[in-house]
Amino acid sequence: MTQAGVPAQAGPAPAKTDPLAIWSLVLGILAFMCCCIPFVPSVLAVVLGGQSREKIRASGGTLTGDGLAQAGVILGWIGIALDVAGCIIGMIIGVLCVMGHMGF
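Given the sequence above, the corresponding structure tokens read:
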């Protein structure tokens, strides 16, 4: 109660960070450390980050974390590009080894 018996007004609820945004960033970072399962963390980072950004935009300000989601999407795409490049380089090296041009 405030002065004159008038109840205190509660302010708006604080904005909450979208958990999908956090997961997108975590998976985007994990994509660089996880060589045993290529593509999986990167693709999940891109998908979850996209879903999170849509959800945050539609929330009307009640959800935050757009920067986290965007970072997750960017890291996910970089991870996908590195995975594709690694596969291509691996195939080229494999073909060259089979053809005997590298002397292995």
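The helical segments are 19-33, 40-58, 66-99. Try to locate this feature in the token string yourself.
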